[in-house]
Structure prediction request, 271 residues.
Amino acid sequence: MFEARLVQGALLKKVMEAIKELLNEASFDCAHSGILLQAMDNSHVSLVSLNLRREGFDKYRCDRNLVMGMNLSSMSKILKCASNDDIITMKAQDNADTVTFVFESPKQEKISDYEMKLTNLDQDHLGIPETEYSCVIKLPSAEFARICRDLSQFGESIVISCTKEGVKFSAAGDIGTANIKLAQTATVDKEEDAVMVDMQEPVTLTFACKYLNMFTKATPLSPQVCLSMSPDVPLVVEYKIEDIGHIRYYLAPRIGD
Amino acid sequence: RLKQKGIHRFFPVQ
Prediction:
């Protein structure tokens, strides 16, 4: 028996918005410690890794490890039926071929349940090595979304260049060039407004706008985003999900032959 | 000219 009840059901709705453009389907690996999801996008350029810890749920029970293959467009249709203040429960029997979503309104006057068929997915699981990154940049998530959106008008790629002075995002194309420089903030009233750069060595890497823009669909999950870079390895774009976990996107750089 | 690399070039399939 698997059962996970999330009082802040809106978080699950936001998680779905954050992955559904990138992935058509994904396996939810449910275990005693919580729920994990790892999946590559269709073109195998990026990887999504979602972690929801059991402690973040109001009620969590997982008697046996369970892999639930879900069609995300179907799951998204179902989660759209939940109101933002609904409590959401996911449940499944051991070895079941369906998962049930239960939505409870805060005062319990409306309770809906939706049963969805599971699919068998034969997805590759990638090993992500523990890495010490050369540059770790924290910035407001809305600022990052704005930068990706603005620079996408100029070209298909964004160059992210991190030095001890700060971080520079650049794009170039037919209409011209664009550069956005963010300096590390000295003092801020709110921590979520801060730009922080932790640099061991300077790094410059180039990434496809298309994917960066899809990652920014996670912006409503967290006021801050963390970018981690090292030379010639994938960028990590991480959004914390309150006290429950995180979503990380890994994006392979564009590199010269 | 830059080429887009696939993610499994960096993270091998387990």
In short: The two ends of chain B are 31 Å apart (CA to CA). The first strand of chain B starts at residue 2 and ends at 4. Chain B touches chain A at residues 1-14 (CB under 8 Å).
